[in-house]
Specification:
Shape: elongated
Strand content: 15-25%
Number of helices: 10
Distance between the termini: 92 Å
Strand order of the largest sheet: 3-2-1-4-5-6
CATH architecture of one domain: 3-Layer(aba) Sandwich
Helix content: 40-55%
CATH superfamily of one domain: NAD(P)-binding Rossmann-like Domain
Order of helices and strands: HEHEHEHEHEHEHHEHEEEH
Number of strands: 10
Structural class: alpha/beta
Length: about 280
């Protein structure tokens, strides 16, 4: 070749080899980052889950599970999601949630989610049979664990309760009931939404458990109202009896649960006193 041909060939070699090397390097970097990045993300997530206590375990990240997770996040309640679908896991991680990919009916997966140190479990899978297996497994691992399960009908609710669920919820029934109440008593529904919504509210309604070391033990309803400047709407006694609109002279005992309404800034003090602070 003449001089021009040699120059062109030299240029072609440099550009071709450089382009191929650059492409190969980027491919290798992508593979390494994908593999090790995913590994380290899983390790960080597992470390966070291992340190969690008093959290909730949500089984299923479908339409119902997504609303549950969002509500927990708004309320500041820690939780871990268990889901088998890879796409759903990706959505949960993108939302900033802790999520494990696995079968929630497996004891090992439930243990990996920290069930033995959890506050409760919510089974929101769309299949009643799977929910029943999840409840059975969870109840075996946590005899005192609070378990709530999704049900499609009354027959399923009965089976889930026999399996060990403390509460069963039918989303369709709840939605229909809410629509009916909104038509019949819109002001009541609006008030409940106001005091239970996690954002933009002055008043707050809470379910507060009284610890045996709490200074509130032995006080009357009127005494707690004067001390905390809040109102007790109902008392769920340790025996299981529910007292709506309790009288002023009703005594508060350890193990009781109070349904309290009051200003948002006062609720933290009430909760602290209930826990013995």
């Amino acid at each position: 070749m003449d001089t021009a041909g040699r120059i062109f060939t030299l240029f072609l070699i440099v550009v071709g080899v450089g382009g191929a090397f650059y492409t190969l390097t980027n491919i290798m970097v992508y593979i390494v980052e994908a593999q090790f990045g995913s590994y380290w993300r899983r390790r960080r997530m597992e470390t966070k889950i291992d340190k969690m206590k008093g959290h909730f375990v949500i089984c299923g990240y479908g339409r119902v599970g997504q609303v549950i997770a969002y509500t927990f996040q708004q309320e500041g309640a820690p939780f871990v999601i268990i889901e088998q679908n890879a796409e759903a896991i990706t959505q949960a991680e993108q939302a900033g949630y802790l999520a494990l990919k696995g079968d929630a009916t497996s004891d090992d997966v439930l243990k990996a989610a920290g069930l033995e140190h959890a506050r409760g479990l919510v089974s929101a899978v769309g299949d009643d049979a799977i929910n029943t297996y999840i409840v059975l497994s969870a109840r075996q691992l946590g005899p005192d664990l609070f378990i709530e399960a999704r049900a499609s009908g009354r027959t399923s609710e009965t089976k889930l309760k026999k399996a060990g669920a403390d509460r069963t919820i039918s989303p369709h029934s709840i939605g229909a009931h809410r629509m009916a109440m909104l038509a019949l008593r819109p002001a009541v529904v609006d008030f409940i939404d106001t005091v239970t919504s996690p954002r933009g509210r002055e008043f707050q309604m809470e379910n507060i458990a009284i610890d045996e070391s709490s200074p509130l033990v032995g006080l009357t309803v009127s005494g707690i109202r004067k001390r905390t400047k809040t109102t007790i709407l109902a008392i769920s006694k340790k025996s299981g009896k529910l007292l709506p609109n309790p009288p002023d002279e009703e005594l508060i005992g350890d193990g009781d649960r109070l349904i309290v309404i009051g200003l948002k800034e006062r609720m933290a003090a009430v909760e602290g006193a209930a826990e013995g602070a």
